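Subject: two folds for Thursday's group meeting

Dear M.,

Sorry for the delay on this. The cluster queue was jammed most of the week, so I only got both jobs back this morning. I'm pasting them in the order they finished. Each block is the input sequence followed by the predicted C-alpha cells. Could you check whether the formatting survives your parser before we put anything on slides? The first protein is the one we discussed after the seminar.
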Amino acid sequence: MLNYIFKRIIHAAEVLFVVSLITFAVLLWIPGDVAQLILGSDATPEKLEALRISLGLDRAWYLQYWDWLKGLFRLDLGQSYLFGQNVTTLIAQRLPVTLSIAVFSMLIASVTAILLGSLAAIKKNTKTDYFVTGLMQLGSSVPSFWIGMLCIVFFGLKLKIFPITGYVPIEKGFIPYLNSIFLPSFVLAIGEIGMLLRTVRTSMLDSLRQDYMDMAKVKGLPKVTVYLKYALRSAMIAPINVMGIQFAKLVGGTVVIESVFSLPGLGRLILVAVEQRDIMLLQGLVIFITFLVILISLIVDIAVMFLNPRIRVQMEGE
C-alpha cells in the first residue's frame, strides 16, 4: 500500500506542475494591464512602468513563472495586487468558511442519502421507494441558487430562524457558528443528495442480492444486524467514492452559494480575483484548490482500500 501511496504522490506532483503551468500561461496572456487595473486610468505612464518593474511584469514569462514556482515550494503563493496581502494569508482567512460549508453539507447529504437510499432498496417497488426516488429526481433538478433564495425568504425573513447573511467564527460560540452556516450547507446538500442517494440505493440493491445475505437470514439474525452489518457495509464502497468526488467539488464550487448568502469564503475570493484580474491571487487559489482535490481523492482511495481488501490487493499489484 505504501508503494501505491508513493506513486499517487508522484502523480499528484506532476498534476500540480501541469496545472500551475497552464494556469500561469492562460492568466498571463489574458488581455489587459495589471498595472493599469491597480493604479487606475488616471495613472501616468511613468508610474505604470515603475509598478510593472516592481511587480516583475517587465521580465520574461518563464522567469516570472520560475520565481512563482520557487515561492510555491516555500508555501509562498505571492502577493495579491488587490488586497496587498500574501495570498497564503488570504486563503487561510477564507478557508474555514468554505470548509465548514462543504463539511456540513456533505454530512447532511451523506446521512440523508444513506438512510433514504437504504430504505428505498429494502422497500423496493413500494410507495416508500417511489417517494424516495421522486425526492432524488427533485433534488437533482432544482437549481441551488433558487433553493437558496427560497430558504432566505422562508427561514430567514419570514420565520427568522436563521441569519440570511454573514459568517460567525466558531471561536465566538458553536451555536452562532452553526446558525450562520446551516442554511447554505443545507442548500448545497440538496444539490448533492440526488446522485448520492441513487448510488446508495443501487449499491444496496446489489448487496441485498448477494448469497451471503441469504446465509445471514437463514441463521436467523435480526433484520437490523443483517441490513447494517452485512448489506450496508458491503454497499458503502461506491457511495464513499461519490462522497469524495462531491466533497472535492464543493470545496472549489461554492461561488454561487457564498455570493447568495454573503459568506467570506474561497468562492467569493475567486469571484473577486476574476473580476479584478488579480492574477497572483487567482493562480494561488487555483493551485491550492487543485491540491485539495488531489488530497481528498487520495484519502478516499485509501479509505476504500481499507474497506475492501480485494481492491487493496488490486491496487498494490498495479
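Second protein, same layout:
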Amino acid sequence: MKIENLDHLGLVAGLVDEIGLVELTGDLLGRHSLNHISPGQVLKAMILNGLGFVSAPLYLFSEFFEGKPVEHLLGPGITAAHLNDDRLGRVLDQLFEFGTTLFFFNVAMQAVQRFGVSVSHCHLDSTSFGLDGEYPPVNRSEVVGEGEEEATAPQAIEICQGYSRDHRPDLKQFLLNLICSADGDIPEVE
C-alpha cells in the first residue's frame, strides 16, 4: 500500500486544468518530442510548488513532489524525477524569451473567455511600497543590448521619490497596480 498526500493541490491543479494553462503554454512556447514533460506541465508544477506553502529552490524542486500523487496532478507517466532544475530552467528561459507580460496577457484572456468573466466594467487600484536603502537609477544603455530595440528590452522597476500616501516623502517607492472586473465572482465550474 502506498499513501500519497494530495492536500489542497488537487483543487489548484483542477483550476489550472479548467483554465487550460498546460495546453495554452504548449501552444505559445512550443513542444518538443524529446521532452518527457511539456512546458505546460512544468509550469503547472511550478504553480503547485509555489502554492504548496513550502516552496523549494530549483535544485530541490523534485523533492517537493515526493510523496505526492504526481501522475494525478501532472499527467500519466510523470514522476518527481522529471522535475529537475535543468528542465525547469529551460522552461523559465522559454517564458522569458516569449515575454512574461505577453504570456500573462494570453493566460488572463483565456481565463476571461473560459469562465465568461464580464470585462465591461473594471476597477483599477494602486498602492505604493516604501523602501529603505539606496537604489541607484537604472542606466538604460546597460539594460538595452546591442541591436535591441528599447521598447522590447526588459524594463526594470523604477525606484524613485514621489508622492507618498504614507506621508513618508523621505522614502523611495514603487507602485503596484491591480485591475479587477466588476464581475467579482469566483469562476463557476460547470
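Two things I noticed about the second structure. The first strand starts at residue 122 and ends at 131. The helical segments are 9-19, 21-29, 39-50, 61-64, 70-74, 85-98, 100-115, 140-143.

Cheers,
T.
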